[in-house]
Amino acid sequence: MQISKGVEWAAHAAALLNGLPPGRGLKAEALARFHDVPAAYMAKQLQALSKAGIAKTSRGAHGGYRLAKPADEITLWDITAAVDGKGPAFRCTEIRQNGPCGLKPEDCKRPCQIAAAFASAEQAFRDSLTAVSLADLAGQVVKDSEPDHLLAMMNWLNAEAEPLSEKSA
């Protein structure tokens, strides 16, 4: 299973939005600059977070992104599903019915052992990501970071965060 770069970028953007003071937001360009990634691609990830109800955007000169709900209500699975979709990673094509020794469709009433194993692994993956909230990650970052780095991040946020207008997108 491969997780896209977009999921990584969206998770980092959401983590940074979590540190915003109330009533303030960050423009997509600022989030892209902070992570040194292309602005258009960061904007695409932020749009996915908005569409999923994870982030909220305000339009206009004083617009920007912020979290749409508390960080303890946003999981890594929510972010992953917002960017990469909720569909299964493995899709059984019933290859066991192909070839000279293929099974008849009526003999395939239960999922094959391979499909069942992939489904079980994928459920464990989703459960693992669902168990980690954005608030959990933020707490770990604070615990593991040097005070100077945290101060630099907070100073950057305070300098870049825009007061939000009331116009929501």
Automatic annotation (TrEMBL):
* Alphabetical list of InterPro entries matching this protein: TR_Rrf2-type_CS, Tscrpt_reg_Rrf2, WH-like_DNA-bd_sf, WH_DNA-bd_sf
**SUPFAM superfamilies xrefs:** Winged helix' DNA-binding domain
Name of one Pfam family that matches: Rrf2
Tree of life domain: Bacteria
**Annotated signal peptide:** none
Q: PANTHER family from the entry? A: TRANSCRIPTIONAL REGULATOR-RELATED, WINGED HELIX-TURN-HELIX TRANSCRIPTIONAL REGULATOR, RRF2 FAMILY
Task: Cite the NCBIfam families for this sequence.
Answer: rrf2_super (TIGR00738)
What name does the UniProt record give this protein? Rrf2 family transcriptional regulator
Which source organism does the UniProt entry give? Parasphingorhabdus litoris
Q: What is the lineage of its organism?
A: Bacteria, Pseudomonadati, Pseudomonadota, Alphaproteobacteria, Sphingomonadales
